[in-house]
Give the backbone structure.
Amino acid sequence: MDFSLGEELEAVRGLAREILTDRATPERLREVESSPTRVDESLWTDLASAGLLAAVLPEQDGGAGLGTAGLCVLLQEQGRRVAPVPLWPALTGALTVAAYGSAAQRTELLPGLVDGTARPTLALEEFGPAGPLAPRTTAVQDGPDRRLSGVKAVVPSPAGARHVLVTAATGSGPGLFLVRSDAAGVSREYAETTSHDMSAHLTFDGAPAEQVGTPGDGAVEHLLRNAYLALAAVQMGVAEGALAHAVAHLSRREQFGRPLATFQAVQHQLADCYIDIEAMRVTLWHAVDALAPPFEAPAADRAALVAKWWAAEGGLNTVHRVQHVHGGIGVDTDYPVHRHFLWGKQISTTLGGAGAGLEQLGALLTGGAVAG
């Protein structure tokens, strides 16, 4: 299987790397981490102006039609620089609206994303064991509309998000709903995460909502697969960026008159990092390929869960090892590599950790119910 990038994806990678390297400097990251929203709005505008936000959307919605593959290339570059912009929730949500939303919903949501003036976020997680495919948040019919009630936990980057895509239980399975963030019946409690993102716990008390697609049409599953792959792509970039820091550090520092990079124990640690990153790369692009025609849901679900597991397990192992080989400066919270550790830790538990992913995969392989 050929996982090499085509000309368009290489162009996305090159442009994204150039912008993120120039803008996401350690000094800028420190500035954004002390801001109220924790989002680099200037960088977000730059990415939109360069056409990188639109690149993943279908051409009919003003995009370049690069889809999940384009999304993963962009997110990998973001992870390398641990750039504080809400790409994964905004773009995975937009891809699902583009695929399942009505014409009115696409018109309301997608043009603002293309030009960088608006973005959605995702409300998929809840307190307790409920997963996105078995939410406790409920949606009840109220005339032609729906009303949502429940609590969603750790909603990423709510600042600047005009809409929230929410998973909720209906009488015929989990559904996906579009809610205005300023709608009546929506309240929030802010919470800082491990990676310095300012998330929010959202409470819905009869909040009006529009359904995206219909229950059972695959919209929730589509969103969840793309979310798994998006997180895996960011995590791969985080791990690659962390490893690059380690290589630079160990090449410069000396002990007993020799560069630390020449010590066998250190080389073994970095070799393990390299192996984990390559496993993350292969499983991610296999999952991206599984989403392409001819699409088969069981195969795509398996591939997405495998990629998510490697991102959680391999990614966390990599940032742990990298911090370890940095010695004392690895625990300095202002040293650049520490941000990679925090991001790796956060991503490894988003939408469930490695153990939860194995449980889901086992259920899928044995024909049991997947809790999501």
In short: The longest helix spans residues 219-252.
